[in-house]
Structure formats: C-alpha cells, structure tokens
Design goal:
alpha/beta, two-stranded parallel ribbon
Length: about 280
C-alpha cells in the first residue's frame, strides 16, 4: 500500500457503511491512508475525526442503513458535496435452522444486509449520477456462491445482494457509475462474536447446529484479516473496468472454481460434510 507523496485517492470522497469495525473499518483506514477523505457511517459512531499521512482522513457519522432519512442527512452535510466511491460493508449474521428461525429474525437479517444496501444506493446514486460518475463496491460473501447450512438467512441475504449489484451495474453503466462486488470468505472480525445464534437446548437440531457453529467459528477466527479484504477492495477501486465479482484470496478463488466445475448435488454434499 502506497503512503508516500502521491496517494492514489487524494481528493476523493469515500463513503463506507459499517465503518467502525471489521471489514468496514479496515476499508475506511485503507482509503484514508491513500489520501481519501473517508466518511464512515455506523449506528453508534462517536463523531470523531482521524487524520492520516498523505492528507487522508476518516470522519465518523452516526446513521443507520435501515433508515434512509439518516443516510440522506449525512450526505447533505458532506463538505465536498460528492461521493466518488461508496463501500457498502454494513452487515450482520443470524444462525439457526430454517424451521426454528422465525420470519421476524429473517426479516431483520434482510433489513440490514439487503435493504440497508438498497437504502444506501437510494441515497448515494443521485449524487453519483449528477456528478457524472462514481463507484459502488458491495461487500458480499462467498456464502452468496455456496449456501451455508444453519446460516440460510445470511446466505439468502448475500444472494439477494449480489443480484441487486449485478442489475445495478447494468442500470448505471450509462451514467458512468461502476458497480462491483467483493466476496470475502472466512474473515477474523467481531462478526463471529456478534452473530445472533438461535440455539435452543430442546431443539432436535441442537447437536448438528452446535457442530456447524463450532466449525464456522473455528474457520472465521483462523481466517483472513479484514485488512486483506480491504486490500482487494482498494485494488478493485483502482480498476478502470473492475470485475463484476472478486473473491478474496486463493481459498475464495478455489471455491468459485469448484462452483463452476461441480454439479449442485456434489457441492451440497461437500458442504454438508464440512458443516454438518
């Protein structure tokens, strides 16, 4: 990463959702170190400002991606009046068997991971369209390629997110707004500890659920750093014509290759053996 006299994103305004932790925080810092003026959004942002070498900075703003009006309020206060790059990193996870996770929890999962991205698009795209261009970068997951048992609603939210992003890429091409997706695999962040677990001791799924969760937590705590994901996002942002979807790391690329090579029945069999 360059931090010398010619930072790559000097003079650019970058908006990052979910910017106080995990992948969102790592992305905010990566862009700031490259000279960008980063506006970091989170529900409980403290409002502080951090300066970085090379004229970059991070300014935290309180907003909730499930509340469109709060996002629009942040955008009206931007000193530059523009957003050059938007990284949609806000998200959370819910784990449990489909039979037992109620629709209310499923809706909450979609409310943040999917509709939060929809709200961010609704707030940001008018600015990008009027200014003549921009770049929307969606933080998805390899779970959008392969569904994870006991994380069905999380996987579904990422499937939906990628369909949204790919349709948006076509819609915005005429306005010079680029749209791309970054797909992390297992990543070591606070996401693991914050995952909502539907763990019922009386459930007939109890044993298999706990085994599945233990495997998830092991893989995540031994996974890629959020800084590695941020490096892929930064690289994507420098591309004149970025790929539609970019998997993170050799492991992520291997998963994508296998989804193209193997029939669905074989892929589901492998996933069942890993998690169940």
């Amino acid at each position: 990463m360059v931090t010398g006299r010619n930072p790559r994103f000097s003079g650019k305004t970058v908006l990052v959702t979910g910017a106080t932790s995990g992948i969102g925080r790592a992305c905010a810092e990566a862009f700031a170190k490259e000279g960008a003026s980063v506006i970091g959004i989170a529900r409980h942002a403290a409002g502080e400002r951090q300066e970085f070498q090379g004229s970059g900075s991070i300014t935290l703003k309180t907003a909730d991606v499930t509340d469109l009006s709060s996002l629009r309020e942040v955008l009206t206060s931007l000193p530059s009046g523009r957003v050059d790059i938007c990284v949609l990193a806000a998200g959370n996870g819910i784990a449990g068997p489909v039979e037992e996770v109620g629709s209310d929890l499923a809706k909450k999962q979609l409310e943040v991971n999917y509709f939060g991205a929809v709200n961010t698009c609704n707030a940001v795209l008018p600015l990008m369209r009027k200014q003549g261009g921009g770049h929307m970068i969606f933080i998805s997951s390899l779970a959008a390629r392969v569904p994870i048992p006991m994380q069905s609603h999380y996987s579904s939210s990422k499937y939906a997110l990628e369909a949204l992003a790919m349709a948006l890429r076509m819609e915005m091409a005429g306005f010079h707004v680029k749209v791309s997706v970054v797909e992390p695999g297992d990543t070591k962040t606070g996401f693991t500890a914050n995952r909502v677990r539907f763990d019922d001791a009386a459930s007939p799924y109890k044993e298999v659920f706990r085994k599945s969760i233990a495997r998830m937590e092991h893989d995540e705590t031994n996974g890629d750093s959020p800084e590695k994901v941020a490096g892929v996002v930064l690289s994507c942002a420098t591309r004149k014509n970025p790929p539609v979807r970019t998997a993170v790391g050799a492991g992520g690329k291997a998963v994508v290759f296998l989804t193209r090579l193997l029939p669905d029945r074989a892929m589901l069999s492998i996933l069942s053996k890993i998690y169940l």
